[in-house]
Amino acid sequence: MSLTQLRQQYQNDQKLNVRIALHQRFNTNPYSWYRWAFDHYDLSFDARVLELGCGPADLWRENVDRIPAGWDITLTDFSEGMLAAAQHNLAEMERTFTFRQVDAQDLPFATGDFDIVLANHMLYHVPDRPRALAEIRRVLRPGGKFYAATNGEQHMRELWELLTPYIPNCYARSLAAAGGFMLENGATQLTDAGFVDVVWHDYPNNLAITEVEPLIAYIQSTNTLMEHAWTEAELDAVRADIAACIATEGVFVIHKSTGLFVAQRDDR
User: Fold this and answer.
1) Residue 169 burial (10 A CB sphere; 0-12, 13-18, 19+)
2) H helix intervals, 91-185
3) Is 244 among the domain residues?
4) How far, in Å, CA of 219 to CA of 207, rounded?
5) In a domain, 40, yes or no
6) Which of 54, 152, 163, 235 could be cross-linked to 75 through a Cys-Cys bond (beta carbons 3.0 to 4.6 Å apart)?
């Protein structure tokens, strides 16, 4: 996906919120992704924390009761609209956040400035990932932790196969949109970037879809990602396919493959 398409897709939080809503409604794992991810963070009292690609700040809204009082938190995104949504969503929280519009490939922070860096489902969108990883390593203190959430190659494959009659090579396009930072290759990229003790934590979860329209809304929200302008006739055909599956099976199951890399900056 080009930088222009990426900016269109994430100019604000509207399309992302549609996709988040589908996951929240139809997840089979009752334990929230954001709570699960937070379970893995180093909860030292006085950490300096940087999040890249914070989006609408759902991570912090869902963990408001767990944020150590001494954390100094900087939230960043390349999208001005996403940052505005994050600021709005956190406005009533009784703590201070710093907000910065930044490019992950050129971080405006001092070397060794942070104890923890978070990148939740965003590295696959970065055009020059080695450069971004070098920047992340640079701004971490020696021994600091990097947490990078991403998906695997089989993530939501049933959805992409459903759409293949309308978008040729849809599954291949979904992999291209993921940009190459996935469960299967992420550890190698982190190691090559100078991180050590790289560990993958799997978040077991699937989608059990029982309603047609939320999935149609999700599909429409990916029009930029899939480079496809849906016609009403196409959407009606997809509706019929989903409805037929639900009528026959009682549910349309979409398997997910997602989790979290935890890595450490070496002591150099």
Assistant:
1) exposed
2) 129-139, 157-163, 170-178
3) no
4) 14
5) yes
6) 54
Q: What's 29's domain CATH number? A: 3.40.50.150
Distance of alpha carbon 24 from alpha carbon 83, whole angstroms? 22
Averaged confidence pLDDT in the chain: 91
Q: What are 162-189's pLDDT values in tens digits?
A: 999 988 888 887 777 766 899 999 999 9
pTM for the full predicted model = 0.91
Q: Around Cβ 181, how many Cβ atoms within 10 Å? A: 24
Record the tokens describing residue 249, joined without a space: 């099976």
Q: Which domain holds residue 114?
A: 3-154+177-205+257-265
In sequence order, what are the beta bridge partners of 52? 119
User: Strand 72-77 to strand 195-202: parallel, antiparallel, or no bridges (unpaired)?
Assistant: unpaired
2 pLDDT higher than 50:
no
Query: For the chain, how many structural domains are there in total?
Result: 1
In a domain, 245, yes or no: no
